[in-house]
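This part of the workshop introduces the protein records we will be handling. An example says more than a description, so a record of this kind follows:
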Amino acid sequence: MKEISSVKKVEGISVVVFTGVNCPACKALEKSISAIKKDYADKVSFYAISVDDYPEEAAMYSVMSLPTTLVVKNGRIMSELIGNISVSKILNDVKEV
């Protein structure tokens, strides 16, 4: 996943995952997303925001648990998922957008 500093910079339909350096669930989710990323590359962008590097962004979106996954359309949050959720749940939320 590409790292970005702000959800507001996201265009189109995107999956944005707030991650942390010492977060095993974040690493597991990143592996799951990497497995499906190439199949959806023409429809969905995938990004990560490190709460260690951008704590103000995490605070702005009230991120209290990691990983927190946002499905975003043109900078607007369409859904929020917390924890090491299944890729199918992420894709269901993407399809609803």
In short: The CA atoms of residues 13 and 76 lie 9 Å apart. The chain has one domain: 2-84. The mean pLDDT is 90.
